[in-house]
Design goal:
The complex is a heterodimer of chains A (about 270) and B (about 260). Chain A contains ten helices and no strands. With about 270 residues, chain A is mainly α. Chain A has two domains: about 50 residues; about 210 residues, Orthogonal Bundle (MetI-like fold), CATH 1.10.3720. In chain A, helix 6 runs antiparallel to helix 8, helix 7 crosses helix 8 and helix 8 packs antiparallel against helix 10. Chain B has two domains: about 35 residues; about 220 residues, MetI-like (MetI-like fold). Chain B is about 80% helix and about 0% strand. In chain B, helix 3 packs across helix 9 and helix 8 runs antiparallel to helix 10. The relative contact order of chain B is 0.11. The chains are: A mainly alpha (about 270), B mainly alpha (about 260). Chains A and B meet through helix 1, helix 4, helix 5, helix 8 and helix 9 of A and helix 1, helix 4, helix 5, helix 8 and helix 9 of B.
Chain lengths: ~270, ~260
């Protein structure tokens, strides 16, 4: 991820090409292996449709409007869930992170609510919000909120006290300190949080769709399962995976772009 | 405010706020008087009736078994794959596309497939499902931990002609251990979530099953008791894990500094 930032001491060009070709060969080999075990019947073609069959099913699927409606619905659940989580978790995280007192007051509730698997809330949502978009968004927001909250709190607490004191001695008011000191130095943490939360939000949007029938790819998969359309189940799983990968790369790219100025482009992923 | 008074107020707030929240919940449910939202005191009573210990064997034990087995398999595989991948750059190039893909896929998307492939809705499917998704945090942290090892350490060992397997046992593994533990902690939390999901889909016992059945039959009390149980389970497992980690990593000087405060 940070290969670009840290110059490699060895010959710079050749290994990159080698790495890329190894990656491509490895993906092709895996696809060939999939085709092989299905065609030779190591795993029956009913249980594991061959790679070519699945890709064909996916190709048929992406030519239908229904698929793209479902796709857009899942993306909508993900985006609104993540957006609400950011709008809630970042301000609350800043408030709790900058006040020792508030952090202590809410430590126990946070520590207790955070590990509750959001999936456990599905039955409650059935009873309250019903099986609709509201439930999907609530679930996605709830799940995405906690990692981002905790990251923001750490980030704000990790602000260099000397920087804050300097700002204070220059008589910067609290609002300006927040904007010029706290936010910029907490931003890398916040972005790590957003990266984690964006994955969580997608997982929970899909979970809500699969278990509560709130529309989207989850419902499409449920239908495919009910009718025993195995190649479609695989095609939809493949598509969902691509959506996940796409979101991951998009968020990482946004992070790199926005944090380009930051000296500590971290090496380790959280 | 003096320092001591401030600290006292802080402790008071730390105790008072959770109590106030639970009290508010209690008052709200009393005022609302809706069978969908039983009072917290009633939920706790139901929790004790169900889980301590009349249904413990039938539902909690199977769930714990699945978490335990799935998590252990994931840790063993994650470390066993992560160490060689951390050491080999080409290995990483070959493996990363697969890892990136599989860890980005929402777990429930593979639930129907896991049933198709494994011809099972029992422990085989549930444990494999949990293990599959718990591998990634351990694997990625192991790779990262191994890559982060001070090169001098390995070069020193090499110049003393320490054989490769001894290098791994004495240098690579211990040096990566703090980060492996960080991955294991993430995996454990994930295991609880994935366990609930897997039991929520074609199952005959377990905590997730109780949740599903009580919802479907409109038995709100057992449903809330199951939710409470899942929360407690996640909390207690995390606590136990921190205890183990503190013991195992006691030798590691920087481990406190390495974990975020």
């Amino acid at each position: 991820m940070t290969e670009a930032a840290v110059p490699e001491p060895r010959i710079p060009r050749a290994p990159k090409v080698l790495d890329a070709s190894v990656a491509i060969v490895s993906v092709l080999a895996a696809l060939a292996f999939w085709e092989l075990i299905s065609r030779t019947g190591v795993i029956s073609e009913r249980d594991l449709p061959a790679m070519s069959t699945t890709l064909q099913a996916l190709w048929t699927l992406v030519q239908t409007g229904d698929f793209w409606t479902a796709f857009a619905e899942t993306v909508r659940g993900w985006a609104i869930g993540l957006g609400l989580a950011i709008a809630l978790a970042v301000p609350i995280g800043i408030a709790l992170g900058s006040s020792d007192f508030a952090a202590a007051a809410f430590r126990v509730p946070i520590e207790f609510l955070r590990p509750i698997p959001s999936a456990a809330l599905i039955p409650v949502l059935f009873l309250t919000l019903g099986t609709n978009l509201k439930s999907e968004i609530f679930l996605a927001t709830f799940g995405a909120f906690w990692p981002l909250l905790v990251q923001t709190m750490y980030g704000v607490r990790d602000v260099d006290p000397i920087a804050t004191d300097t700002a204070r001695s220059f008589r910067l008011g609290p609002a300006e300190r927040l904007y010029r000191v706290t936010l910029p130095s907490a931003l890398p943490y916040v972005f790590t949080g957003i990266r984690i939360s964006s994955a969580v939000s997608l997982i929970l949007a899909f979970t809500a769709e699969l278990f509560m029938g709130t529309g989207g790819l989850g419902v499409a998969m449920n239908v495919a399962q009910t009718f025993g359309l195995n190649d479609r189940i695989y095609a939809l799983a493949l598509a969902t995976g691509f959506l996940g990968v796409g979101i991951h790369f998009a968020v990482s790219a946004a992070e790199r772009r926005i944090l380009r100025w930051h000296p500590s482009q971290r090496t380790a992923a959280a | 405010m003096s320092g001591r008074a401030y600290r006292a107020a802080k402790v008071a707030a730390e105790i008072a706020v959770p109590i106030a929240l639970v009290a508010a919940w209690q008052l709200w449910t009393v005022a609302r008087d809706d069978p969908k939202f039983p009072r917290p005191t009633t939920i706790v009573a139901e929790f004790r009736r169900l889980w301590l210990f009349s249904q413990f064997d039938t539902h909690i034990v199977p769930s714990l078994e699945r978490i335990g087995l799935g998590f252990s398999i994931a840790v063993v595989l994650g470390v066993a794959l992560g160490i060689p991948l951390g050491l080999s750059r080409l290995g990483r190039s070959a493996a990363m596309p697969h890892i990136e893909y599989w860890r980005a896929i929402p777990p429930p998307a593979l639930l129907p497939i896991s049933i198709l492939l494994l011809h099972s809705i029992g422990n085989l499917q549930k444990v494999s499902f949990i293990a599959f998704f718990c591998i990634f945090p351990v694997l990625l942290n192991t790779i990262d931990g191994v890559r982060g090892i001070e090169p001098t350490l390995i070069e020193t060992a090499r110049s003393f002609r320490v054989p490769p397997h001894e290098q791994i046992r004495r240098i690579v593994f211990p040096a990566a251990l703090p980060q492996i533990f960080a991955g294991m902690r993430t995996s454990l939390a994930l295991a609880v979530i994935v366990m609930v999901l897997s039991e929520y889909f074609s199952s005959t016992n377990g905590v997730g099953y109780v949740l599903l059945i009580s919802k479907n039959t409109f038995q709100f009390l057992p449903m809330w008791a199951a939710i409470l149980l899942i929360g407690v389970l996640g909390y207690v497992l995390n606590l136990l894990f921190l205890l183990v980690e503190r013991n195992v990593l006691a030798w590691h000087r920087g481990w406190r500094a390495a974990t975020p405060v």
